[in-house]
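Chapter review: from sequence to fold.
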Amino acid sequence: MDAYHILVIVLSVFLAIYLLLSIVFVVYLIKVVKSIKQISEKAASVVDSASNLSKFVSPAVAGKYAFEALQKAIKHHKKGK
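The token string follows.
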């Protein structure tokens, strides 16, 4: 075996390791994107409920309700991890 064969083997091993790590990274990236999407949907839901609630109550009470709902959503999301 000459140096070229050894070089091809070494580069092939590094390429295989790189491809494996890239696949793992992409899978984790997809999971993070899905969780960010869920968080944004929950935030939009909180905003919608707060805007509907503000039509019936004073802005101070609506702000307090929205803040409590946001805190509850954050705590619930942290427990899920």
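Two observations follow directly from the output. The first helix runs from residue 3 to 53. The chain has a mean pLDDT of 85.
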